[in-house]
Structures
1.
Amino acid sequence: MGAALAYVLNHKHRVTSLTVGHGVGAPGPFKLAFMINMMAKFGFMRFTTGLLGAGPLIAFSSKLGSIRHRANPKQIDDYKQSYSGRAPEVVYWFKDFRSKAAELAGRVKEIDIPTLVFWGELDVLFDPSNAKNLDAALPQSKLQILPEAGHLAWADQPELFADMIIDWVETAHK
């Protein structure tokens, strides 16, 4: 989410609407879950997670990130391949996570295009209160909290997620 918000802020002429969910960039008291908070605070957590590689990172995310959906072995392998060789880079991003998030959060009010903010109501990685703070800061936003969904809201509620995106594309983003 942070990358999408930053892109829009730096390339205003290229984007006419946006869909974002469950990530950094929300203003206010940004709330993290335990494990991500540990990675943000402690170098030892970043070091050991980076050293162990993508496997444990993906296993943790897929187990805690979803409520109703359980990734199958093919999906897990796909996730692992996408992070292969990059786990340390991804994990070390959390080193100065708070300052990056605060800088981005300070500018989100500048995003004045139709924006759909979605979040899983049971997200244990990034607290759903962050969605409400982001929605309040964006001048043209619509907030959609997906029921019985975690951090991987699209996997937990695929039909609701698809309907939400179709509605956004056909009508709401204009």
2.
Amino acid sequence: MDEVYKWLKSYGLNDTEIKVYACILGHPETKVVDIQRQTGLVRTTIYYTLAQLKSGGLISENTQNNIKTYRAADSAVLKQNIESEITQQQNKLSQFDGLKTIFDQLQTRKPDSASFVARYEGIGPIKQAIEQAMRCESKHWYIIAARDNFLYHTSKQYKQYYLAERKRRGITAKTLWEPTDDFRPPSVEDMFYRNPRRLPEEFLGAFKSLVILYDDTTLIIDPYGQKTAHAIHNATSTQLLRLVLNLIWKTAKQSP
């Protein structure tokens, strides 16, 4: 029964709907009084839930001698509903494929104001912000990264994708890493694509953010636990930060 409950939950029914449906499923020609006795639900809730289940085609109603009884629909109805939903989603996907270019154009279009701040909440939106950075015109980033940053907590698959996608797009960077004890000497590939150097010791433990400067934008990704990020689109402030980071990078150590 637990497996049936989990499946009905994934199908979209809430806990109350599952209780009523399971009661009817196990007792054909069930009356409201029977449902109330077995579930402990009040009648107003039962009547509302029955209406929801009927509208979904999951149960049928029969009236005889002014007494209404309920029976669960054949399991084939569930299958038909799922197949119909799949068809609808496939149609939506096909329509979206035809509109994707328009969505991308609207998404990447800058606001009328030359300066603005975009806020991202959640892992998915933050990854979208990184994707926007991947599409930078300059093909070059300035990065300042704490050891315990957002990327550090992402999956191995995403880390591999992140590095591979940067390489595929030809994005080089000047990177400043927190001066931790496990700072490793950069590889030849690191030197070409990432150019990592150690921040001064004063930065150790002082921050947990990941900052990416690209084009006229400063992307600040907060610690992983906060799951927020802000993209500051302002040419003047980004250029100022770029000058400061470049100065620090030039004087920073390449290896321990």
3.
Amino acid sequence: MPVSDKRVQIPKSAVEDVIKGLRVELDRRTKEKGAGAFLSTHEVLGVVSEEFHELEHAVRSNRLKDVHNELVDIAVACIFGVACIQEERMDW
């Protein structure tokens, strides 16, 4: 039996709700900070790394709401980074 069969299954609708929420958060952040592209892959790495370190701290502190918020921050940074690459807006 695969490991996934032993876990509680998350309904597709729950994942779709999260994706909708990420769209809303991405829109909010681009309104707040602008839609200026990351300048480089190093900048993307820096942003994602900073958020990852904040996630580690939230996990170690056992604060589920903070873990959630940091995961959202990472997802938004990753989505924006992928968009910058797809639009060929990074120099390197």
4.
Amino acid sequence: MTCGISGSKRAPLNPDMLRISVSEMQETIALDLEGRLAGPWTSELERCWRDQQAVSAGKKILLRLRAVTFIDDAGKELLKRMFDQGAKLEGAGCLVRAILAQITRPQHVRSEPVSGSKS
């Protein structure tokens, strides 16, 4: 798998792999993900993301997880780091959308009971 500009013809995807297709638009660089974001593919996505950040000339990075079938814990952590550093995340399917909702949900501070208050 390579991280580069996607061509018009693509080979069938092995179900245990991750395909990353890169497309450049006027204000955005899109990374389209297909397959499993797990194991060694998490590191590959991070490498690709960092490579694109280096050449993006300030463009926003958009990750489109429209055909992702599985995300392990390391993949979730990477997506969270990417989101925290300004990447936009889009997904399809109930599982992927639920994971992205957890990642993009604002973290609220838990309120602690005030000392001396009666419960």
